[in-house]
Structures are given as structure tokens and as C-alpha cells.
Design brief:
With 274 residues, this protein is α/β, with parallel strands linked by helices. The protein folds into two domains: 2-237, Rossmann fold, CATH 3.40.50.300; 238-274, no CATH class. 39% of the residues lie in helices and 22% in strands. The protein contains eleven helices and ten strands. The chain has helices spanning 42-49, 73-79, 96-106, 111-124, 140-152, 170-185, 197-200, 220-224, 227-232, 239-249, 261-272; strands spanning 2-11, 16-26, 31-35, 57-62, 65-66, 80-83, 158-162, 189-193, 205-210, 213-218. The strands form two sheets. Strands 6-7-8-3-9-10 form a six-stranded mixed β-sheet, with helices on both faces. Helix 4 packs across helix 5 and helix 5 packs parallel to helix 6 (170-185). It is globular.
Length: 274
């Protein structure tokens, strides 16, 4: 599991405190969303998960390994893959296949195993047909999937994704989200940073951050029961939730703790069929 224990972090030399006493736990195989307004500390938090940053105070442990222990960081980074908001910041190969092989090559695996892992990872994210393509010819969505494949080739237990659908068209965004759900169903733990509450609604638990701290957390149903609390810190609700709120205000007995389209359709159908 991933454990943050009273974590503080300051950016130097400015002395800006980005995390202020964060304590949270992510269980093995759990699918968690981290949401919050701009500047609340989401990206700083996720960069602590694989020891890109280490706490100014407090501790982060990954399956019992303290990220402050430099001797354990290679093991930590094999367990936790990181997908940055801009895939260009982590893609290093000329072709999709070369890039996917970069991680396993750095693990000094045998050539046969590297080829096996690359083929498996590309197939798993549905881009096996792009193996020989030059990275520069890929669309934004294809680059995002290539970045995820490169992480999968390392066979991590968790994947942390920072705004994985940012700047993508709706079709590409849906493909990426479907891939994330598939990885979770295969047993990979997911930590998903997003500003999109509709995306967060599809996870098992939502952690809401504000001003460097955990503001509150719970299942999507619990979070969406606290819409006033979300609005207080400037978090926009999914349009479908806003619709349900308006229906309830008009006198219809609908639940408003729903953030996904399927749940809302089911709720409205149930109302019609009464």
C-alpha cells in the first residue's frame, strides 16, 4: 500500500508550502481519484508517490519502503509507474516500440524478455499496430497510450496518472479512460489526478485536496452528497449532477449524489417507471 504520514513539502528557495500535513492511504489494487482546484497540491502529491519528490517533513512509504531511503528508490519506481500530464516529457524513443523498450532495457532484462514485455504492453493498450511508427507522427491520444505502454512494460503494481485526458479530444479521452478502467480490472492500482469530476465519479474513492491538505475524502456517492462543500472551493460539478440537482429543486424525488451518466440515466428511468 501507499501511505502518506503527516507529509509537508516546500518548494525552495521560494519557501512555498505545497503540502501541509497530508495523511492518506491507497490500498493495493485500489482505483483512487485526487481532485481539487488549481494550486491545491495534486501534482506535488503524485510526484511524492514514486520519490521524484521527498517530504520536507513526514514520510511516504510504498509497501513498507520509505521514499527517503535512496537505496530503495529503484524498487519503488519499479512498483509505481508515473504518466505525466504531457507525454512528451517522458517519451524518449524514436519509435513506439523503442520507447516502450526503454524501461525494461534499463532493468537490464534479457533481450527475449524485453521483446516479450514490449509486445504484451503494446497489445494491452491496443496500439500493437503502431509499434514501428515514429513518435512524432502520433496523435495526442496515441502518445498518451504509448506513454502508458512504456510504463506497463515495467510491470508496475500501481500507475499514477497526472491529468491523463488533458488536451485530448472526446474520442481520445474516452479511449484513455477505458484503458485505465481495464488496467484496474486487471489488478493494477490506479492513482488518477484530475480536475474532471465526471472522471472521478468512475473511481472507487475520491480524495479532495485544497490548499495543500486533504479537504475530505470518500466514495463518489459520499463526495457528491457534499456538493456545497465542493462548490465552496471552486470545484465544478459534472453537468449530469447539476441536472439532477435542478430536477430535485423542481420537486422530483431524484438522488443528487450521482456523477456519472449511467447512474443518472438509471435514476431517471426509475423515476419514469414508478
Amino acid at each position: 500500500m501507499i501511505v502518506f504520514d503527516n507529509v509537508y513539502f516546500q518548494y525552495e528557495p521560494e519557501g512555498i508550502e505545497a503540502l501541509c500535513g497530508v495523511s492518506l492511504t491507497v490500498e493495493d489494487g485500489e482505483h483512487v481519484a485526487v481532485v481539487g482546484p488549481n494550486g491545491c497540491g495534486k501534482t506535488t502529491l503524485i510526484r511524492h508517490i514514486n520519490a521524484l519528490f521527498t517530504p520536507s517533513k513526514g514520510s511516504v512509504t510504498i509497501n513498507g519502503y520509505d521514499t527517503q531511503d535512496a537505496g530503495r528508490r529503484n524498487e519503488i519506481r519499479q512498483m509505481i509507474g508515473m504518466v505525466f500530464q504531457n507525454p512528451d516529457h517522458q517519451i524518449v524513443g524514436m519509435t513506439v516500440e523503442e520507447d516502450c523498450a526503454f524501461g525494461p532495457e534499463n532493468l537490464r532484462l534479457p533481450t527475449g524478455e524485453i521483446r516479450e514485455r514490449v509486445a504484451e504492453a503494446l497489445d494491452r493498450v491496443g496500439i500493437a499496430g503502431l509499434a514501428g511508427r515514429n513518435i512524432e507522427t502520433l496523435s495526442g491520444g496515441e502518445k498518451r497510450l504509448a506513454a502508458i505502454a512504456g510504463i506497463l512494460a515495467m510491470r508496475p503494481r500501481y500507475i499514477a496518472l497526472d491529468e491523463p485526458t488533458a488536451f485530448l479530444d472526446p474520442v481520445s479521452a474516452r479511449l484513455v479512460l477505458e484503458m485505465i478502467d481495464k488496467l484496474h480490472s486487471d489488478g493494477v492500482g490506479i492513482i488518477h489526478i484530475t480536475h474532471n469530476m465526471a472522471e472521478a465519479a468512475g473511481t472507487e474513492r475520491i480524495i479532495v485536496m485544497n490548499k495543500g491538505s486533504v479537504y475530505f475524502e470518500g466514495t463518489p456517492q459520499v463526495i457528491f452528497r457534499n456538493v456545497d462543500k465542493l462548490k465552496t472551493i471552486g470545484i465544478s460539478l459534472p453537468q449530469i449532477t447539476e441536472l439532477l440537482i435542478r430536477l430535485r429543486e423542481s420537486g422530483l424525488p431524484v438522488r443528487t449524489d450521482i456523477g456519472d451518466m449511467d447512474g443518472a440515466v438509471s435514476e431517471i428511468k426509475g423515476l419514469i417507471n414508478k
